[in-house]
Automatic annotation (TrEMBL):
Alphabetized UniProt keyword annotations: Isomerase
Name of the featured protein: Ketosteroid isomerase
Pfam families reported in the protein's UniProt record: SnoaL_2
Coiled-coil stretches: none
Chain ranges of the SnoaL-like domain: 10-110
Gene Ontology MF terms: isomerase activity
Domain of life: Bacteria
SUPFAM superfamilies, alphabetized: NTF2-like (SSF54427)
InterPro entries linked: NTF2-like_dom_sf, SnoaL-like
N-terminal signal peptide: none
């Protein structure tokens, strides 16, 4: 499972940075969920593969740079360690995060993101 999980993490990140939404959709279960902390335009839990894609598109629309630091694997799941940055005239995003992906049958079933700077995320994603 480790090789598959690592490959899945690398494929997810590569598709995210290139905006290859069909590639991301192909590695998600139809009932996938994604939970983000905070109180802003991208916070909360979305349900369904299409909703996960819509959230990824919304985050990318803010001009976020997704620097992959590590793909971390467990026996059955994987996580992406990222440094996300972006800038607008009135706000700067500079956060470290871990996006934990629970896998089922070789695809992503659930995503939960942990952030280093929730107040900064709240200020940026308005």
């Amino acid at each position: 499972m480790t090789t598959t999980a690592r490959d899945l993490g690398q494929r997810f990140h590569a598709a995210l940075i290139t905006g290859d939404w069909p590639a991301i959709r192909s590695i998600l279960h139809d009932d996938a969920t994604w939970t983000l902390p905070g109180d802003n335009a991208i916070s909360g839990t979305v349900r369904g593969g299409d909703a996960v894609i819509e959230r990824a598109q919304k985050i990318a629309s803010y001009g976020v740079s997704f620097e992959l630091l590590h793909v971390l694997v467990s026996r059955e799941n994987m996580a992406l360690s990222l440094h996300n940055t972006a800038q607008r005239p009135d706000a700067v995003l500079d956060e470290y995060l871990t996006t934990v992906c629970r896998l089922r049958e070789g695809r992503i079933a659930d995503i939960e993101t942990y952030l280093s700077d929730v107040p900064g995320m709240n200020a940026f994603f308005v």
